[in-house]
């Protein structure tokens, strides 16, 4: 089994799109088999508890209640009932192929970090998980309208505890913390697996009003961005992974890069 943990963005958009995306994401996690343990740090307690998952109010955060990565990862590792953990952003829908990919990585490596590119897709409505065709409909949306996100974006991290990284107090939801995870795992000799072909990771389109300044261009002036720039890494992309997983779950060493030549 897998323990999935996340932290939601504020549900303060007028259209209710973020709450809908969160419900869609958690709903897809609950459809995985075997059913994972799910831990949510922060957010609207009544919504989280309504979804039937674990709600944790207190996690180390800054003055704006934005969680620190090191504290959240440490709490999740301490609380999880499973040895395989996955952090993911709160708007990510995963299809059942995630489980096969996780088992493939866990059976191959004692220690690993599995990442992958996402598909950006407009999912404007609630997904009806009671419908037998929900998975087929989402796959069709990915094929017809999905946009493969560039390799610098990383929206999920799967690993076996303890990961063995001394994570600094990076802030979630701000740039470069995800780069840090990859670059330091590589530097520590931990196998980093690119599961882009094996995992259908669906990112639901949204705006960036949850960030100070709204968009990536203006967010560079905020203190939280500069905080992560100081502690984070400018490199560490999906393309830097030392191993690659096929659509069938087979894992092979990647071609030449700075870490495996």
Tell me what you see in this structure.
With 261 residues, the protein is of the alpha/beta class. 30% of the residues lie in helices and 18% in strands. The protein has a single domain (2-253), classed as Spore Coat Polysaccharide Biosynthesis Protein SpsA, Chain A (Alpha-Beta Complex). It has helices at residues 17-30, 45-50, 69-79, 97-108, 134-145, 177-187, 216-219, 223-231; strands at 2-6, 37-41, 54-56, 84-88, 92-94, 113-115, 119-121, 147-148, 156-160, 192-194, 201-204, 243-245, 251-253. The strands form two sheets. Strands 3-2-1-4-9-6-10-12-13 form a nine-stranded mixed β-sheet, with helices on both faces. A four-stranded mixed β-sheet has the order 5-11-7-8. The model has no long low-confidence stretch (mean pLDDT 92).
Question: Total domains, how many?
Answer: 1
Percent in strands: 15-25%
Q: How helix-rich are the residues, as a percent range?
A: 25-40%
CATH architecture level-2 label: Alpha-Beta Complex
Give the CA-CA distance, first to last residue: 34 Å
CATH class call: Alpha Beta
Shape: globular
Number of helices: 8
Radius of gyration: 17 Å
Provide mean pLDDT, rounded: 92
Structural class: alpha/beta
Q: What is the count of β-strands?
A: 13
The CATH topology name reads Spore Coat Polysaccharide Biosynthesis Protein SpsA, Chain A
Instruction: Point out poorly predicted stretches.
Output: none
Which oligomeric form is depicted?
A: single chain
Mind summarizing the main beta sheet?
9 strands, mixed
Physical arrangement of strands within the biggest beta sheet? 3-2-1-4-9-6-10-12-13
Q: Which sequence of SSEs, written as H and E, runs from N to C? A: EHEHEHEEHEEHEEHEEHHEE
């Amino acid at each position: 089994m897998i323990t999935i943990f996340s932290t939601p963005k504020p549900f303060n958009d007028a259209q209710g799109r973020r709450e809908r995306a969160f419900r869609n994401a958690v709903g897809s996690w609950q459809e995985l088999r075997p059913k994972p343990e799910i831990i949510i740090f922060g957010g609207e307690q009544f919504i989280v508890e309504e979804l039937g998952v674990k709600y944790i109010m207190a996690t180390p955060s800054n003055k704006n209640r934005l969680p620190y990565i090191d504290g959240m990862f440490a709490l999740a590792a301490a609380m999880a009932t499973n040895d395989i953990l996955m952090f993911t952003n709160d708007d990510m829908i995963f299809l059942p192929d995630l489980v096969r990919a996780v088992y493939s990585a866990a059976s191959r490596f004692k220690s690993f970090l599995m990442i992958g590119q996402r598909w950006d897709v407009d999912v404007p409505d609630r997904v009806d998980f009671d419908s037998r065709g929900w998975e087929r409909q989402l796959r069709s949306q990915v094929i017809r309208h999905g946009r493969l996100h560039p390799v610098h974006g990383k929206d999920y991290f799967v690993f076996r505890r303890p990961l063995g990284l001394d994570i600094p107090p990076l802030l979630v939801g701000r740039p470069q913390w995800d780069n840090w995870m990859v670059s330091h795992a590589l530097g520590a000799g931990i196998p980093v697996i690119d599961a882009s072909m094996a995992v259908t990771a669906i990112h639901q389109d949204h705006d960036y009003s949850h960030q100070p300044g709204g968009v990536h261009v203006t967010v560079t002036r905020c203190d939280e961005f500069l905080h992560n720039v100081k502690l984070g890494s400018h490199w560490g992309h999906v393309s830097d992974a030392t191993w690659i997983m096929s659509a069938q779950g087979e894992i092979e060493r990647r071609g030449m890069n700075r870490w495996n030549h």
